[in-house]
Design brief:
Number of strands: 11
CATH architecture of the largest domain: 2-Layer Sandwich
Shape: globular
CATH class of the largest domain: Alpha Beta
Strand content: 25-35%
Largest sheet: 6 strands, mixed
Number of helices: 8
Number of domains: 2
CATH topology of the largest domain: Nucleotidyltransferase, domain 5
Distance between the termini: 30 Å
Order of helices and strands: EEEHEHEHEEEEHEHHEHH
Radius of gyration: 18 Å
Length: 246
């Protein structure tokens, strides 16, 4: 089965075609689509299909990143994927962004995996984060996703019982200095270079879920996941967006 995946939570959007049976990536393209995603997304999808030498008729499963991330971009990507699912009568899987990002690293039983990436430009030291553990051969989320200052995350990690911690994603400015005390108490594996959510990771996570339970999400009720309120909500003290369970 071929999986067509979209990842639009950040300024760089990506689209990929993944061959589930062969566990291979046919093509993945990324584009900087800040404030232009609505216009550029159809051409991005078509370009990936062309590179893969397939058509929408060949796609067996659609996958889309649900967030957290940019409020507008998450909604645009999700709406586009839902439209394809309903128009083509294809199953769709919504993937939590942090679960996809967790696939970019390898962890072992007893290790703690921490995924993180920037939460908002106005707060350069604040991150989205999620904790994962490898149990019985499967990677499982440990607790809710959250947004916090990186220094607060380090304090949280100090209190954890695990002695080996793997961090993946994008480290905020000054992270190495903030981690100095933690390194005295824990073994820390840091990313050699920043890694951000990508459509290929979304496709892989969707395929994992499909193998466990080959059932489509409901494209009508599928909603984006937000950890933080939008700027409008914060400014006016209102709720206009749907905040998924995290």
């Amino acid at each position: 089965m071929l999986v067509l995946a979209l990842e639009t939570t950040l300024e760089v959007a990506s689209c990929a075609v993944w061959d589930g049976e062969r566990k291979s990536l046919l093509a993945e393209l990324k584009v900087h689509a800040y404030q232009t995603l609505t216009q550029r997304l159809p051409a991005l999808v078509q370009a990936v299909l062309d590179y893969s030498e397939v058509t929408l008729r060949d796609i067996g499963l659609l996958a889309v990143s649900l967030g957290p991330g940019s409020f507008t971009s998450v909604r645009v990507g999700l709406a586009f994927a839902k439209g394809l699912s309903m128009a083509l009568n294809k199953p769709i899987i919504g993937v939590r962004t942090m679960e996809a990002l967790a696939l970019s690293s390898t962890v072992h039983e007893g290790n703690l995996l921490v995924t993180l990436y920037p939460s908002r430009p106005s707060r350069p030291t604040e991150v989205y984060a999620a904790l994962f553990q490898f149990r019985d051969g499967k990677l499982e989320r440990d607790g809710n996703e959250f947004a916090c200052e990186f220094s607060q995350l380090v304090l949280k990690l100090k209190a954890r019982p695990e002695s080996f911690i793997v961090l993946v994603g994008a480290m905020p400015s000054g992270a190495v200095n903030v981690l100095a005390d933690l390194k005295c108490e824990k073994q820390i594996a840091l990313p050699l270079s920043p890694s951000l959510p990508s459509a290929s990771l979304v496709a892989q996570r969707a395929w994992q879920r499909w193998q466990q339970n080959p059932k489509s999400d409901d494209p009508v009720s599928l909603s984006p996941i937000y950890v933080l309120p939008s700027s409008a909500e914060s400014r006016f003290g209102i709720t206009v967006s749907m905040h998924g369970e995290v």
